[in-house]
Every structure is written in C-alpha cells, then in structure tokens.
Design a protein that fits this description.
Strand order of the largest sheet: 1-2-7-8
Order of helices and strands: HEHEEEEEEEEE
Distance between the termini: 96 Å
Strand content: 15-25%
Structural class: alpha+beta
C-alpha cells in the first residue's frame, strides 16, 4: 500500500492513491466528458469519410464526380419575332463550357430538350473555352456549332440536358414555370406567349 498523497484528507485505510503527473488531475466527470467529445468527433469524421471516398453514381456504378464540362448561358427565346428565319433560329442557343485546362473530346456527346430533340457533338472542346450550339443552319467553328434545324428547339418551359458518349447525364438546366425566374443564365424571354 502506498502512503496517502494528501495527508490532510481522511481516507479509508485500504484506499490506494496513485500519483499523477501535475496538470492531469481531472475529475471522473471531466474525463468522461473529454472521452465523449473525442468519441463524438471520431464518429463524425468516420461518417464523413465514406461520402468523400466513394464517388459512385447510383445508376451506373461509375465515378460520379462533377464534370469539367457544364452548360452555360442559354438563349432559349430568340429576340424579335419568331418567324423561323435562319437568323431567328440561330439567335436561339445553348453554351457548353469546358471549365478545366485540358481539352475534352465531346464526340458522341448529346444535347437534348424535353421533347427529345437531340444534337450530337463531333468536336474537341479546348480547355477553358466554350462553344455555342445554335438551332439553325450554319458553318461550324471552334466557338459556334449548328444543329441545322428549320424549326425552334427550346420552348419557354424546357430543360437542356447534356450527356456524355455513354449516355451518362453530365449537366442539365431548366427554365420556365416552376423555375425561379423564367430565364436561365442570361436566357431572355421577349414575351408574346409560347411559340408552340
């Protein structure tokens, strides 16, 4: 048996007092509280790790990281009268932007509206650049491509969906009724009611 550390305190004769280094005199309550806080922190950290470590798409089992290619500004209602002229059709467009520094091959990717009208890409999009997908007829360039259609694609209430060559949804943007403001990223609605 060890001698009592505090001679002024009465203790039972069979009590063993263990010497502790200075600064570690914690009550049982303080030790339990500290243990609880540390355990809670460990549980929170463990719960957060699987969410960061497993980037799996539930639909296809593929990694579901955010793509560097996104939909940008959308002009879904060409300014002026909707007279189906090629100029009016080409004033309706969707911007696709590559936010990474690397070139992305968009060959086989698609841009689709809610009515399943589909444009299939056949281009490589340079890093940190954009391409506008126009509805009408025109000559493709690095910054503008054309669907070669004779009728409007984007309605006043619609959704643009971008999919990769495997059919995986990469990005989508919706506008019109049920959406915040009837515009999307600079898309303009010039009034006159729906065109269809």
């Amino acid at each position: 048996m060890l001698p009592a550390a505090n001679a002024g305190n009465e203790q039972r004769p069979d009590t063993v007092v263990r010497a502790r280094p200075e600064g570690f005199l914690l009550s049982r309550t303080a030790r339990r509280f500290t243990a609880t806080v540390l355990a809670s922190g460990a549980l929170l950290a463990a719960a957060a790790l699987p969410a960061q470590a497993d980037h799996r798409d539930r639909d296809h089992g593929q990694p579901s990281h955010r793509s560097a290619v996104v939909l940008g500004k959308i002009q879904y209602d060409s300014p002026g009268r909707d007279n189906r002229s090629n100029r009016s059709l080409n004033d309706e467009w969707v911007t696709v932007t590559n936010t990474s520094r690397r070139t992305v091959n968009l060959r086989g990717w698609t841009l689709t509206d809610e009515s399943r009208r589909t444009y299939r890409f056949d281009l490589r999009l340079a890093g940190r650049s954009s391409v506008r997908v126009h509805t009408g007829v025109g000559r493709d360039s690095r910054t503008d491509v054309f669907q070669d259609r004779r009728d409007y694609v984007w309605d006043d209430r619609d959704t643009a969906t971008l999919r990769d060559a495997r059919g995986k949804k990469i990005d989508s943007k919706a506008w019109g009724r049920g959406h915040r403001d009837g515009h999307h990223d600079g898309g303009h609605h010039s009034g006159g009611g729906p065109r269809r």
